[in-house]
Amino acid sequence: MNTLRLRSVIGMAAVGVLLLAPRGQAQERLSPPDSADVEIAGRQLKVVFGSPSTRGRVIFGGLVPWSRVWRTGANEATSFSTEANLRIGDAEVPAGTYTLYTIPEPERWTLIISRQTGQWGTEYHADMDLARVTMDVETLDEPIEAFRIVLFPRGPTEGTLALEWATTRASVPFEVLP
Question: Which residues of 4-25 are buried (b: 16+ CB within 10 A; e: fewer)?
């Protein structure tokens, strides 16, 4: 395979079209795209993320280091969009589209809501932060193989955003504002 063709294939893999397997066979991403959405108070909220798997690795404190900004998934940056003005934790978040990052810690996590959108997941700029909020952390009884983000209602105007992977769940409540 010539260098130009190889660069073309690698470029396609970087944008998620395909990965190059041995002998040129195409296969799906190791961390496929996933999404979650919910309607609360007649308004849509949606999150789109890459879903890596544990595959026998130590995740938090290993693959994902403690006390450092994490892309919160894999591949492209995790996108969060809301049709409603929200209160997430103690932060007010206007309707719009954002990127979610986190800073995992053993006892608590920080959710970062960034105004920057459309970037690769590891491209983080603190000056683009809209808000940082504290997330509750709990240990799950059963491990979760593939990272997931869950949005679920807790009432007519309230819900929870939860990140789950390995034996960890980090969550924060949100509320649709009038």
Answer: eeeeebeeeeeeeeebeeeeee
Q: What is the pLDDT of residues 23-38, one digit of tens each?
A: 555 456 788 999 999 9
* Residue from 85, 102, 106 nearest 114 by CA: 102
Supply the DSSP string of 9-41, one letter for each residue: HHHHHHTTS-EE-GGG-EE--SS-EEEEEEEET
Amino acid (one-letter) located at 149: I
The predicted pLDDT at position 121 comes to: 86
Question: Does the predicted TM-score (pTM) go above 0.85?
Answer: no
| Cross-strand pairs, 45 | 38, 82
Domain ranges of the chain: 1-29, 31-176
**Stretch 67-90: mean pLDDT:** 97
